[in-house]
TrEMBL record:
Pfam families: adh_short_C2, RVT_1. It comes from the Eukaryota. The lineage of its organism: Eukaryota, Viridiplantae, Streptophyta, Embryophyta, Tracheophyta. Belongs to the short-chain dehydrogenases/reductases (SDR) family. It comes from Escallonia herrerae. Signal peptide: none annotated. Residues 776-881 form the Reverse transcriptase domain. GO terms for molecular function: oxidoreductase activity. Keywords: NADP, Oxidoreductase. GO terms for cellular component: membrane. This is Reverse transcriptase domain-containing protein.
Length: 1079
């Protein structure tokens, strides 16, 4: 007699629940194991007898049955044991130190499980379960299921022939939960039945939740994408620097890491009906070189010249995993001995090329060894990732398409192949031209940085042709396919748009751009700002490569400035109306920005034909005159200067003429409609002193009407300087009928949504008052806010003016309507006269207080608190907060208010410094201290502290502090706390710089330095937990005023990668994104 299936389903709660007091059928999950467990203290009660009965049934009962049936199960060809457990039996829910024994998978025995159960029952008898870390609600049930899960693992080790697993059937309607559940008995039975019928070769000793059972132990597909670089690019003419450590790390990740993952997952793949493995590789890992005389291009070639490696990795028939490993091992030995180039390995991108070549070879080996699994490698294209410094032509989503398409390929698809992008996944409608085919083979033969320039005799877009038949992408040659499939990058061009002309007249004339420069991603990374310049056409079209444009910061075009004189030309109105009607999408604020951009583009084209480039011509002529004046003053130069000066005078006269015409037009409008420019004064009769009433708040918070917005606009001066976006108020007034709806929508959206785009409140502070300005006070703070922003701020200011009388002291004369500062001057003179003429023993003293720009020294937190105390509505405070914070731009460099200095020193306070340390350092310590007991129950715990490169010790001048925090061997938590405490005392006493602390961003730097040191301390104290610190980069957050190089998602990547680092990973280190760095 034999037995094939055994399903153990024995469970009692072990507690007595007062259902009437509970008031519902069952308690919630958070009331059993969460923070609300105390609420059930008087509802769910447990005695020693009930706890002992629960363990006897749920744990010991299963053991007795299993022990009796194992001999019969071993007679079966595919025996199964399924233990019905619960998610409440997970060890993370038990804080007891004794329960940690159950997580020791390797040396776990039945006796140890029994000892844990016995220890729990003794704690119940002594009424000390809470003190010893055992659960307090349904504790016997939780411990019994945790013991059952552990016993499942023990049995799986003892009986390897039997597949033994535990499963939680879900929240099933039974007597145990008073028939309150989400699954019927039949639905709850599906998981255990599927586990019992699982095919041979599946896992054993595992715990499954109901939702995991549908595909338990079966894996349909995996995409292996592991990449690290290995070198530092140091210059155009210098060699690529690499070290053995970087090369070894590159191979360990790109090659061995993929092998390890595939080896572990192969048993699960073989259980699937249509398994897939896709290895993300690169065209740089290809072995073949296909020379061709098709092009005489000057290319920088890189490949694998090593003939032995080529032969080993390209021998498909006899290729084995051992041979691939041997090639990799030889390469690493040559790197260690400094024999890379002499042994025929690539001189640049060496480890990366070898790792991808090895991965391609291993793909073929896997395909041979496991014919049932479709295994292929694919190059996703030149994708914007950290590896390419976010340079590339494809987004991450676009790069993923090739890998996903391979993973979803039909079962009849090939295996053991390498795909470059999507070339072999898409069936071409027609045969690829010979030109494109040959060019593809040439480009794929090379690796490393290269550039090709010449006549490719083909266009790739409709914008590259004028005249003749229209361009059709379907009829194009092979160049488009080559660029897409081989990751080529078109460098673009400047100057003339076309490089070829058929020289025919009128409609027969055809112009095309057939000359171009194509580079691969490696070359583009070396020269990110290089471009092609088309020279003036001669008898033969030519192009010229501008190598001089290799600068670190690209030029940014200046926005076109709206000239008030344009408004007197009636055609300008049609230009605005046409540009304004172009459809755009987005929020009202974003739509307005796009429409203004369209108007600027239209005016840029319209201006030369109607007014001429007066300003541009003036600049060019002035520059030419300056150049001539620097040369030798001979007869020819003097004559040229005289002619240019005459032309310049004519241009200046034309500019002056247009301005005079504008003044005439404006004066005519003024005298024809005088009342249109006169507005009634504000009505202050109903202002109630001392208190902001409900009526006041209703007035302040009302959504502005169309007429109010138009009135505020008309109050602005017309002949003001153009704003940052190039548009002055005269533009808005002149074309109000066209743009009225969008402008009103953006203003109203601010008052309804309390949100303002950052593009709306940019401003300039461009005028220094000193020769070498070092502080904001050295600048003349001229605000050039956009008109859209000014409309909002003026509406807020005009409304505030109506209640200002009750907010400002009667003794204050400035800024308040109907009060004159001269009145105070008269009073002071009377007081001074009295003091000077007073006689007697007692005298009078006058104190002059200089309140220089006191309103510019206020903190926002203080201003908002004052508004709240005055009784302003929270909506009004929010509007002031959002509309009042500007991004300051000084000499084209943006600074936040954290950077504002007073008399050369950064403004700091003890309160801010203490808050910074309390959050950035002490807060992390407190959270870590609370969570470490739970982390220690895990098999692979991780702690990742998000720090900053500003916390590196080199930024702290104090040698003593550097020594304290840099002493890794003797560093303790007490020493770190002492440094932090000393810093706060120095801040309180005003001794920051004299004691060697940083002069700017002081508290932030110290907090992050302390966090980095605490990371090392933790790593020493808890060697089983992988603990590291990481700087996510300059991320766009509130802390950086939403300025930065990375989005929140991109900034989270290095943090997540560290958290998912393999168990062999290091601990106690600091990473700058994914690169290990110094503390």
């Amino acid at each position: 007699m034999e037995l094939r299936f055994q399903v153990n389903n024995a469970a009692i709660s072990g507690s007595n629940t007062d259902w009437k007091a509970l008031g519902r059928p069952t308690p919630r999950y958070d009331e059993i194991v969460g923070k609300n467990a105390k609420k059930l203290k008087d509802v769910v009660k447990q005695s020693y007898e009930e706890a002992e009965a629960c363990l006897r049934t749920n744990y010991h009962g299963v053991k007795l049955v299993t022990r009796a049936l194992v001999p019969l199960l071993e007679l079966s060809d595919s025996p199964r044991i399924v233990n019905l457990s619960s998610i409440l039996g997970q060890l993370k829910l038990i804080a007891s130190d004794e329960a940690k024994e159950l997580s020791r998978v390797e040396d776990l025995t039945e006796e140890r499980v029994d000892a844990v159960v016995k220890g729990y029952l003794e704690a119940v008898k002594e009424d000390s379960i809470a003190n010893k870390g055992w659960p307090t609600i349904y504790s016997a049930y939780i411990v019994s299921k945790a013991a059952l899960n552990a016993y499942t693992r023990v049995m799986a080790n003892m009986c390897p022939k039997i597949y033994i697993n535990a499963v939680c059937p879900g929240y099933v309607k039974t007597d145990l939960n008073n028939h309150d559940g989400v699954l019927t008995v039949e639905e709850g039975a599906k998981g255990p039945v599927r586990m019992a019928l699982m095919p041979d070769g599946g896992p054993s000793g595992m715990f499954y939740n109901q939702i995991e059972v549908n595909n338990a132990g079966v894996l349909n597909g995996v995409i292996s994408d592991s990449e690290v670089g290995y070198h530092n690019v140091v210059g155009e003419k210098e060699k690529f620097k690499q070290s053995y450590k970087m090369a070894e790390a590159c191979l360990r990740t790109n090659n061995y890491g993929v092998n390890l993952v595939a080896r572990e997952l192969l048993p699960l793949f073989e259980l699937s009906d249509s398994p897939r493995i896709v290895n993300v590789s690169s065209t740089m890992g290809q072995l073949q070189i296909i020379p061709s005389p098709l092009f005489q291009l000057k290319l920088i070639l890189q490949h694998i010249p090593n003939k032995t490696a080529k032969k080993e990795l390209s021998d498909v028939e006899s290729l084995t995993e051992e041979r691939v490993d041997a090639v990799v091992k030889d390469f690493l030995e040559d790197v260690k001995e400094g024999l890379v180039e002499s042994k025929g390995w690539p001189s640049s991108y060496t480890a990366y090329i070898v790792s991808k070549a090895a991965l391609n070879a291993y793909t073929r080996v896997l395909a041979k060894m496991h014919p049932k699994i479709s295994t292929n490698a694919v190059c996703p294209g030149y994708v914007k990732t950290d590896l390419t410094n976010t340079q590339g032509i494809l987004s991450a989503a676009e790069g993923a398409k090739a890998a996903v398409s391979l993973a979803l390929m039909p079962d009849s698809g090939p295996s053991g192949l390498f795909y470059s992008l999507m070339r072999k996944l898409k069936k071409s409608r027609q045969e690829k031209p010979v030109f494109g085919d040959n060019l593809t083979r040439i480009m794929e033969s090379f690796s490393g940085p290269w550039l090709g320039i010449g006549d490719f005799n083909e266009i790739i877009a409709s914008s590259e042709k004028v005249g003749g038949r229209p361009f059709a992408s379907l009829s194009a040659g092979g160049l488009i396919s080559v660029i897409n499939e081989t990751e080529l990058i078109d460098l673009g061009f400047s100057s003339n748009s076309f490089t070829w002309n058929n020289k025919k007249p009128l409609i027969a004339n055809i112009k095309e751009r057939i000359d171009r420069g194509l580079a691969n991603p490696a070359w583009r990374l070396l020269f990110p700002y290089a471009s092609i310049q088309h020279c003036q056409p001669t008898n033969q079209p030519t192009i010229q490569f501008c190598s001089a444009q290799l600068k670190s910061i690209p030029n940014t075009p200046n926005p076109i400035k709206f000239l008030a004189c344009w408004t007197i030309d009636h055609t300008s109105r049609y230009i605005v109306e046409h540009a304004w009607r172009i459809p755009v999408r987005g929020s009202p604020q974003f739509k307005l920005c796009l429409k203004l951009k369209n108007v600027r583009r239209a005016f840029k084209v319209w201006n030369p034909s109607h007014f001429g480039n007066v300003q541009s011509n003036v600049k060019l002529l002035s520059k030419a005159i300056d150049q001539i004046q620097k040369e030798v003053p001979d007869h020819a130069n003097l004559a040229r200067e005289a002619n240019l000066q005459i032309t310049l005078d004519e241009e200046l006269k034309e500019e002056s003429m247009w301005m005079e015409k504008l003044v005439i037009v404006l004066m005519r409008i003024f005298f024809q409609h005088p009342r249109a420019l006169i507005f009634p004064s504000l009505n202050l009769e109903n202002v109630i002193l001392l208190v902001i009433s409900g009526t006041d708040n209703w007035m302040l918070c009302a959504i502005p009407s169309d007429s109010e917005i138009g009135q505020v606009l008309n109050q602005m001066g017309s002949n003001k300087v153009s704003r940052l976006d190039g548009m002055a108020s005269v533009f808005y007034k002149s074309y109000w009928k066209t743009i009225k709806t969008d402008v009103i929508n953006i203003v109203k959206s601010f008052f309804t949504e309390n949100h303002l785009l950052k593009e709306q409140n940019h401003t300039y502070c461009p005028y220094p008052k000193a020769r070498e300005p070092t502080a904001v006070s050295h600048y003349r703070l001229t605000s050039l806010c956009n008109i859209n922003y000014k409309l909002i701020s003026k509406i807020l200011a005009s409304r505030l003016q109506s209640v200002l009388n009750k907010l400002v002291s009667p003794l204050q004369a400035a800024f308040v309507l109907n009060r004159l500062i001269s009145n105070n001057n008269i009073i002071v003179q009377e007081l001074w006269h009295t003091m000077m003429n007073k006689k007697g023993k007692s005298g009078l003293m006058a104190i002059k207080i200089d309140m220089e720009k006191a309103y510019d020294k206020m903190e926002w937190a203080f201003i908002l608190a004052v508004l709240e105390n005055f009784g302003f509505d929270s909506r009004w405070s929010g509007w002031v907060n959002n509309a009042g914070v500007l991004n300051g731009v000084i000499n084209e460099g943006e600074v936040g208010y954290d950077d504002v200095r007073e008399k050369g020193k950064f403004i700091r306070s003890y309160k801010k410094a203490e808050a910074c340390l309390r959050t950035n350092y002490y807060g992390v310590k407190q959270v870590t201290r609370e969570l470490i007991p739970l982390l220690e129950l895990s098999n692979s715990p991780r702690i990742v502290n998000v720090s900053s490169t500003m916390g590196q010790l080199q930024l702290i001048p104090s040698k003593r502090v550097k020594k304290e925090l840099g002493d890794v061997g003797g560093l303790t938590e007490e020493k770190v706390d002492a440094v932090v405490k000393e810093f706060l005392e120095d801040v309180k006493e005003g001794l920051v710089e004299s004691k060697g602390w940083p002069s700017s961003y002081t508290a932030y730097i110290v907090s992050k330095a302390a966090l980095n040191a605490y990371t090392r301390v933790l790593a020493k104290n808890y060697p089983r937990i992988s603990i590291n610190a990481v700087c996510p980069g300059w991320v766009k957050t509130d802390l950086s005023n939403n300025q930065g190089n990375f989005t929140a998602e991109e900034g989270a990547k290095p943090v997540v990668r560290l958290a998912l680092m393999p168990e062999i990973g290091s601990s106690g280190l600091f990473f700058n994104r994914m690169r290990e760095s110094t503390f």
